[in-house]
Design brief:
Elements: H1 2-31, H2 47-59, H3 61-68, H4 71-74, H5 79-83, E1 92-95, E2 98-101, H6 106-109, H7 114-121, H8 135-143, H9 154-164, H10 209-213, H11 215-219, H12 229-235, H13 237-244, H14 268-272, E3 291-292, E4 299-300, H15 303-307, H16 315-326, H17 332-366, H18 378-399, H19 403-435, H20 439-453, H21 459-462, H22 467-487
């Protein structure tokens, strides 16, 4: 009897399973286009990729294993689909009877991911390789380094270019120039003319979306003394919540919509790239940014394009999209108040230190008090630190809610650099020029500094604060000391 019941139960389970399969098929047939049932771009792995995989499985088992875990593997996209090349391509080589290219460029990726590549090409990331001629690259090529590695500086090759990207050069024998390869810099200039490296964010050969969504993916480049976004994120409430509740982040969700698939915290990708219930994914990382915090003086992100007469997405529209992300977790009033705090910090930095600093450096150059060679005089280093390091830290700290980077790593150091280093160095340069006979230039330069320090925000330094302001501060200090002493009795 028990056996009969068991057989009957098994039979019923099979019958129900068959019924649900039939219903599912009929549902697809009625409501979906025929191609909706095709789960793979290719029905099977190509003969070329089969041959590649068989060899690499033995010679490069880690690469083979990574590919085996990828969505490419599941879609029958293999080595040859990505690495195939035209024999006339600059970087094409013969390999086991196939024409292939070692470099898989965005142009190659666009064969399947055209929308993503098109968005990326509009981004600031795509232009990151255009670093030649910048002060940063001058430091790495000349001040720090020497052109001792095939005519290039090892400091630039292993430093700047690994984040920014370099122009990948092909030697006469067909090999890739080792000064420019390997390189996964985000703005890499590829032999086929395309810009960028998808593998800067999407680690080859697995292309794991979890890895690309985590803050560490951006932290390869966005960290350190001049743009510590990774450290800033880790200090912020967002970063604290992410690491505390990463198990609730649903990182492997196919759609990964903030507020729906996860709500513990945003990552870099959440704010700058990923989908909301209203916004699609974008590979233009600047699409939601309203200020540019990179240069000496911050300006709205569309200012340069507008000055050149180019049409571009307005900073207001970009901000509205970022606020859309914020409002997936926060109230509109809170988001608006945050942006007021952010804007006022940027404007404080701009008006109190950045514009005056640039004005001071400008008059020194105009009056020929400094040489044309960058970084050969102390005040040039001081000014560079002020805006490129401390000033960026303060602004990025405000943008990403990291108070310590706004204050002690930011505005405190900006102020110390300006008042205690830049002003005395400026006066020393002017005095030397005066002794050499540039009396009129020295007079003009002193007048510039005098006008700057006469502004209300610098009155404490010039000693011209109103007595009422001084008294109020002394009263506050006295009250603080009194509280402190009473609390510690």
């Amino acid at each position: 009897m028990d056996m009969e019941r068991g057989n009957h139960s098994t039979w019923m389970r099979l019958l129900l399973a068959s019924f649900f399969i039939i219903v599912t098929i009929l549902s697809f047939s009625a409501n979906a286009k025929p191609e909706a049932l095709v789960l793979k771009p290719f029905d099977q792995l190509s003969p070329e990729s089969k041959e590649c995989a068989a060899c690499h499985k033995e010679k490069n088992p880690s690469i083979y294993a990574q590919w085996g875990r990828s969505k490419h593997f599941g879609a029958n996209v293999g080595c040859y689909e990505c690495h195939q090349a035209d024999p006339v391509d600059k970087d094409a080589i013969k390999h086991q009877g196939f024409d292939i290219a070692v470099i898989v460029s965005p142009k190659d990726c666009s064969n399947c991911h055209s929308k993503q590549v098109e968005e990326f090409e509009k981004s600031h990331h795509a232009k990151a390789g255009q670093i030649i001629g910048s002060l940063d690259n001058f430091l790495a090529e000349v001040v720090e380094g020497s052109l001792s590695f095939n005519g290039e500086s090892p400091a630039a090759v292993s430093g700047c270019w690994q984040c920014h990207g370099s122009e990948v050069k092909v030697l006469e024998n067909g090999d890739l120039d080792p000064t420019t390869w390997p390189n996964t810099g985000i703005g890499r200039i590829n032999p086929d003319g395309s810009l960028g490296a998808c593998t800067a964010c999407h680690q080859r050969h697995e292309f794991d979306m979890v890895q690309a969504r985590r803050p560490e993916a951006c932290g390869k480049c966005h960290l350190g003394p001049d743009h510590p976004q990774k450290e800033i994120y880790e200090e912020s409430k967002h970063g604290i919540n992410f690491y505390a509740h990463v198990d609730r982040m649903n990182m492997d969700s196919s759609k990964w919509i903030v507020g729906e698939d996860y709500d513990a915290a945003p990552t870099c990708a959440t704010c700058h790239m990923s989908a909301t219930s209203d916004l699609p994914v974008t590979h233009d990382v600047g699409d939601r940014i309203s200020w540019t915090l990179r240069p000496a003086i911050s300006e709205k992100i569309d200012a340069k394009a507008k000055a050149m007469g180019k049409e571009t997405k307005s900073w207001q529209d970009r901000r509205a999209d970022m606020q859309n992300v914020c409002q997936s977790c926060h109230t509109k009033s809170m988001v608006n108040s945050f942006y007021q705090q952010f804007d006022h910090l940027v404007e404080l930095y701009n008006e109190k230190f950045a514009r005056p600093g640039k004005q001071l450096m400008g008059i020194l150059y105009d009056e020929k008090m400094l040489t044309e060679t960058a970084f050969d005089e102390e005040i040039e280093w001081t000014w560079f630190y002020l805006w490129h390091h401390e000033g960026r830290r303060a602004r990025h700290g405000a943008a990403m809610m990291a108070p310590d980077y706004v204050q002690w790593h930011g505005m405190y150091e900006v102020a110390e650099r300006f008042y205690i280093e830049m002003v005395p160095q400026y006066l020393e340069v002017v005095e030397k020029a005066e002794h050499k006979g540039n009396v009129d230039g020295a007079k003009r330069a002193r007048k510039v500094l005098e006008d700057i320090l006469a502004r209300p925000e610098h009155a404490w330094f010039s000693g011209k604060e109103p007595d009422s302001v001084k008294k109020a501060r002394k009263d506050a200090q006295k009250a603080f000391k009194s509280r402190y002493l009473n609390e510690n009795k």
